[in-house]
Structure formats: structure tokens, C-alpha cells
Amino acid sequence: MTVGVVAVQGDFAEHIAMLNRLGVATREVRLPKDLEGIDALIIPGGESTTLRRLFDLYGLTGPITTLASSGLPTWGTCAGMIMLAAKLTDSRPEPLGVMDITVTRNAYGRQVDSFEADVEFPQLGEDPFHAIFIRAPAVAAMGPDVEVLGSLEDGAPVALRQGRRLATAFHPELTEDTRFHRYFLELANPSNEA
Fold first, then answer.
1. pLDDT reading at 194 higher than 60
2. Which of 36, 78, 126, 153 is catalytic?
3. All domains of the chain, ordered by start, with CATH?
């Protein structure tokens, strides 16, 4: 299995390091040709308006939208979650529209309002996952086919799955905990097609 990690902006290196720890082959995706032959794709956290601008500049918008829509296992973390959304409550950037969620950018405030929380994810086992939220987005609405994997204590969903697409409002790659990356790899395994 080869996992592509969009490497135009944001914390792609941390995702690659986590996948390397798990013994998974990775490829930095900067141009459409880098998408050829990958088995899964991660869109990392960063700055969503910059990500969209660079997607357009490097010709990635169409190919990523097509691949994610046609079943390529795709995971967006933080700004990546914003990119996967069908709609945003903001006027920009234009999301890719591949996951039936409406997202609010920077829902928890500015960088200084970043926080950490222990979140229960039954799919990951009994121990809570220590989640790091940095200028995190929030889910304003979701379609009936979207499954909530975990929520904050106030009920706000922070991890969602729709088929083979995964979105997290936090940054699992900034922890030492490999469970979310393992979960995505299981989701990406062809024998586990949803």
C-alpha cells in the first residue's frame, strides 16, 4: 500500500513520519502525476484558503475531487476536513464537495484558543485519544450517510466517516498515538470496502 500525502502546505511531514513509523510507503503529492497509483490520500492540516489556492495552481483540485468521489480512501485533518466538505458556512475557500458535511472554519477561535481534549473513540479501543485542536473547524451539519466516530463532551462531532472518507477536526499526526492512522489504513484496505 502507498499512501499519498498532499505536500503543498501544512503539516504533511508529520503525517509522513507517522506512516513511516507504521511501515507504510508514502508519496508526497504536489502535482497530479503524484496521485497515480496511490491507494489512499491524506489532506493535512494547514491553512484552508492557501491549500485551495495551491490545489488550483498545481492542478490538484479536479484530480483529487474525482479520486475521492470515486472511492479512493481519503482523510482530511483540520484544514483537510474543510477541503473535503460539501459546504462551508464561510464564503471561502470553495471546498471539494466530496463529503456530505457543512463545516465552519476556525470555529473555536484563533491560534491562542487552541486546546487539547481526551475524546472517546470506540473504534480505537477503550483508552481515549488525546486530540489536539489548532484553529479547529466544527461540523455545522451532516448528511444521513455520515457516521460520527467521536465527539467532544458538549456533543460536537470531531471525527466523521462517510464510506471510505474520513475527516477529523484535530491533528492525530501531532501526537505519539498511531491509532487513528491505523484506523485509516484499515479503512483503506481493499478487503474492507464499505
1. no
2. 78
3. 2-192 (3.40.50.880)
